[in-house]
Amino acid sequence: MYEIDSKLAELENTGSPIQVALIGAGQMGTDIIAQVECMVGMDIPVVCDLSLDLAEKGYRVAGYTGEIVRTNEMDEAIEAVQAGKKVATENYRLAVALPTVEVVIDATGSPEMGARVSLDCINNGKHIVMMNVECDITVGPILRQMAENAGVVYSLTAGDEPGSIVEVYRFAKALGFKVVAAGKGKNNSLNIYATPDEWEEKAKARNMSAKMLVEFVDGSKTMIEMAAVSNATGLVPDVRGMHGPKCNVKDLTTVFATKEQGGILEKEGVVDFGIGDINPGVFVIVTTDKPRLIEGLVQRDMGNGPNYLLYRPYHLCSIETPITAAQAVLYGESTAHPMKKLTSECITVAKQDLKAGQTLDGIGEYCYRASIELADVAANGNMLPVGLAKGAVLTCDVKKDEVITYDMVTLNEKSVLLQLRRIQDQMYR
Question: Which residues form the SAF domain (predicted)?
Fold first, then answer.
């Protein structure tokens, strides 16, 4: 990776480490602070969270023992940073605009906050590391274009599955392979009707919120992540919601093959996922018609043909995120980013019968789940992107398993996310 370790060591030796602002000090954000505390050539002078206690706790958990200044005022923050102190703030605009900051990591998980933070980054000339995949699949193309126009990098993060998959995908494409499928392992069985109540105890045992766990169980997170991969690569879902077969690593090349080859796919060039021992890995299935390369792939146990497996057996989530921050500052490159327009959309599907006047809750809760669909199909069907669903008010009854459309809801007109999405639709559809 361009001797990134040496570059960071040089920055440390010259007293000019990369300056990072972190927005969101939850589980992922705290991991990032802890990882950067172990590194050379990078520093997080400011952490923003709705809870100052959480922001400060992130530093303490990471082992920082120095002074932390709590402030929402820019002058105080600048003075604190110049004195070598850390800043905890509730003011994301302060964190983004702090003069020394070069790159901002959005670890909020809120699509609306992701849009607001990204716009502030663009206006202030800061690189954007977007851990907020929900925001990316909603307005990623326009944010990426605006960032490029401003001369800054917009990037999904290394370590999260979309970033990890795209890294393997880029490797495969650079070598000239044809990509048959790209995907991930799902670490629990799929229950599309899961709600937080029934998963409360298991969530506590894993030290996470029930809502967050349900995002994974009901498939929403997988749909969102693979939509991000689709939008970054042009690979498509073979069917709405993907196949999601039960299979293990040893089965990947035969399961994710065309039906003519005995597999499950109608076509090549798809995104999908498997339920088995694949997790926490990601995979890209490739093929080639060159006999010499086929011989080499078979000899190296990549498969027996016609498809071959490129498998990365891990993704380290937020632990890898600092690499993307460094990549953006040092080389002006992303780990992954959406193309000019959406290839796939994550649509909103009712988990239960819903009533007119009901306000939709969030992803991983009670009202709906996400499912992946081709962007053109979703647009033609007026389907509501899942990133816009939270807070929408139903104008009619909706049946369980019915796709919620724009004309079934009233949306929040004050939403920056919504306004960006409308501009994106006008420009890139």
Answer: 345-410
Give the domain ranges of the chain.
4-160+318-331, 163-314, 344-428
Question: pLDDT tens, 193-227?
Answer: 999 999 999 888 888 889 999 999 999 999 999 99
Q: Per DSSP, what are the bridge partners of residue 46?
A: 21, 87
Q: Does CATH number 3.40.50.1980 belong to domain 344-428?
A: no
CA 233 to chain CA mean position, Å: 14
49: phi > 0 → left, psi -120 to 50 → alpha, else beta; which?
A: beta
Q: State whether the Cα torsion 25-345-223-238 is positive or negative.
A: negative
Distance (Å, whole) CA 186 – CA 280:
8
Q: Pinpoint the alpha helices (H) of 151-290.
A: 161-174, 196-205, 210-217, 220-233, 252-255
321: number of Cβ within 10 Å: 28
- CA distances from residue 334 to 98, 160, 286 in whole angstroms, order as listed: 22, 13, 23
Report the distance separating Cα 270 and Cα 237, nearest Å: 5
What would the mean pLDDT of 123-150 be, rounded to a whole number? 98
The pLDDT assigned to 208 comes to 85
Domain 4-160+318-331: assigned CATH number: 3.40.50.720
Task: State the DSSP string of 305-319.
Answer: SSEEEEEE----GGG
| Helix-helix angle 416-428:111-124, to 10 degrees | 70
Burial of 209 (0-12, 13-18, 19+ CB in 10 A): middle
β-sheet bridge partners, residue 385 = 347
pLDDT at 1 over 60: no
Question: Does 188 have pLDDT greater than 90?
Answer: no
